[in-house]
Amino acid sequence: VQLQASGGGLVQTGGSLRLSCAASGRTFSSYVMGWFRQVPGKEREFVAAISWNGGETYYSDSVKGRFTISRDNAKNTVYLQMNSLKSEDTAVYYCAASRTPAGRVTDGNQIDYWGKGTQVTVSS
Predict the structure, then answer these.
(1) Whose CB has fewer CB within 10 Å in the chain, the N or C terminal residue?
(2) Distance (Å, whole) CA 60 – CA 82
(3) pLDDT per position in the chain (124 positions), as tens?
(4) What does 95-123 look like in DSSP terms, one character per residue?
(5) Cα–Cα distance measured from residue 78 to residue 94, given in angstroms and rounded to the nearest whole number
C-alpha cells in the first residue's frame, strides 16, 4: 500500500483544513487507517484512527470534538477534517495503514505503512 497525503497548509487560529490521503492498491478497504502528527524534537503521536468500514473512529484527547476522520473506500481515500485549529496543532501530519484493530492503534508500533507527511501550520 502506498499512501499520499495532501491538503496541508497555513491557516489562522480557529480556522479549518481538510487533509486527504490517497492509497494505491486494491486492498485499501481491508486496512484500518489513521493519522499521526509530529513536531521537531518530539515523537510521532497518534491523532485519529478509523476502522475498515468506517464504523468505528478513535481520537486522541487533544483533538476530540474538533477533528473528524472519515474514509471513502470507493475512492481509496481517508480524510481528516480539522476544525477550530490551535497553534499546538502545528505539525507534520502523516497518514498510516494498519492491520491492527482500530481501537488498538495508539502509536507507530501498530503501523504497517506510512505516507509522506504534509505540513500544517496554525498561526495566531
Answers:
(1) C
(2) 13
(3) 899 999 999 999 999 999 999 999 778 989 999 999 999 999 999 999 999 999 999 999 999 999 999 999 999 999 999 999 999 999 999 999 999 988 888 888 999 999 999 999 999 8
(4) EEEESS-GGG--SGGG-SEEPBPEEEEEE
(5) 11
